[in-house]
Amino acid sequence: MESTSTFLHAVRKARSYGIGEFLEIIGELSQESTRKGLLGRKTKELVTFGIALHKQCERCICIHADDAKHIGASEDELEQVRRIALFMRSTPGKDEHLWKSWKKSWQQFVLAKGAIKPRNRELIALGISIVMQHRKHIRLHVRSARSLGHEAEAIVEVMPIALLMDGAPALSQIPSLVKALEKTE
């Protein structure tokens, strides 16, 4: 768990500094989103595109759709990310029955045939969940990504992407991500 411990070490280090140093460290963490890791560049760009769609930032959507195409993403893959973003937007409120229905529908969608591997669909949903600040979703998508074969280090690579796209609000979700990962070990 080298990248996990490096990432968490940087976050802990950030807590002990003032705002200037803190922002500098956040900038460094955001740079992680483009560094080579367990996730390929295309997967990272599809996660970024999903977050852009969720945030409904037209400029970001155009930039990240173009970047994804440039590095080899197909129109089918981009369409699948759009569907993931729509699915995530349809998240029910506090009604537990609706949540159970949503979760069952999500599981069917994730496992259905498509352009993006199911485990990577979970990472796209996780990126959106972090930006949504939705702990229940974070737990669900971490658990599912792990059960579909992603290592914890690969899952952690989603956080710097969320930081890049959402800044401090995403930062507040680090404890939820860490807790969800700990429950899968």
Features of the shown structure:
185 residues; mainly alpha; 76% helix
Q: How many angstroms separate the termini? A: 11 Å
The DSSP helix count reads 12
Rg over C-alpha atoms, rounded to the nearest angstrom: 16 Å
**Main β-sheet description:** none
Which structural category fits the helices and strands? mainly alpha
pLDDT < 50 runs, ≥5 residues: none
Mean pLDDT over all positions:
89
3D architecture notes:
With 185 residues, this protein is mainly alpha-helical. It is built from twelve helices and no strands. It has helices at residues 2-15, 19-31, 41-55, 58-70, 75-89, 96-111, 118-132, 135-147, 152-156, 158-166, 168-171, 174-182. The mean pLDDT is 89.
Quick structural overview:
The protein is mainly alpha-helical.
Detail the topology: elements first, then pairings:
Layout: H1 2-15, H2 19-31, H3 41-55, H4 58-70, H5 75-89, H6 96-111, H7 118-132, H8 135-147, H9 152-156, H10 158-166, H11 168-171, H12 174-182
